[in-house]
Design a protein that fits this description.
Elements: H1 2-24, H2 27-44, H3 48-51, H4 53-64, H5 70-85, H6 88-111, E1 117-120, E2 126-128, E3 131-139, E4 144-153, E5 159-166, E6 169-170, H7 171-185, H8 190-196
Antiparallel strand pairs: 1-3, 2-3, 3-4, 4-5, 5-6
Length: about 200
């Protein structure tokens, strides 16, 4: 009996890992599955955003964070000039502060749409080089908000998000412009830019 239970457990773990691997290699399935997980949080636990906002954000972040290539996105936000002039320590520091700002922005934006449904357009076919666009519509009682995820394909066949466009607002470009403005204000001092960084990309729905 013990051996049977052990074999069943190993079979379950193998199947679970296989399913996750397959999802990670299909950008449409990946975004759809994870988005539906977020919808559950939005519709069932939205009151947490008022009573315990950090817990609400954590629930969204736990779903969303593994989907993003923060190294690549952070480098794009900094731009080639500042990325190359920054030290490795400064790059690592910016990745961390940027990660927090992006995840907070995304969670706060989604919190506005507690009655949301998310529909993935599986027929939308746009691929340029290694970048695939996955289009969704976020439906609320009064409006439809288009969302486009830009995902990069990697050598192992998996995908990660490198940009998001929500309701026409390009988050990657918005963050990049913010970094450039802050660089001008701080006389291109990378350390000061990092210490002053915060998100201004909150999207009013």
């Amino acid at each position: 009996m013990w051996r049977l239970k052990r074999n069943l457990l190993l079979t379950f773990l193998f199947l679970s890992s296989s399913i996750n691997a397959d999802i990670n290699k299909n950008p449409f399935e990946l975004i759809d599955v994870k988005s539906q997980e977020m919808v559950v949080v939005l519709t069932k636990e939205n009151e947490l955003f008022v009573t315990n906002p950090e817990l609400f954000k954590d629930k969204i972040k736990n779903i969303f964070e593994p989907l993003i290539d923060f190294n690549r996105v952070s480098a794009s936000v900094m731009g080639k000039k500042y990325y190359l002039s920054a030290t490795k320590e400064e790059r690592d520091q910016f990745i961390e502060v940027f990660k927090i700002s992006l995840l907070d922005t995304y969670a706060e934006t989604l919190a506005q749409w507690d009655d949301a449904q998310i529909i993935t357009d599986f027929s939308y076919d746009e691929k340029k080089n290694k970048i695939v666009s996955v289009k969704q519509n976020l439906l609320t009682t009064n409006n439809i908000y288009p969302i486009i995820y830009k995902l990069r394909e990697y050598k192992n066949g998996t995908y990660k998000i490198v940009n998001i466009i929500i309701n026409g607002i390009n988050l990657g470009q918005t963050f990049h412009n913010q970094f450039q403005a802050l660089a001008f204000e701080k006389n291109e001092n990378i350390a000061e830019i990092i210490s002053e960084w915060k998100s201004d990309a909150f999207i009013d729905g």
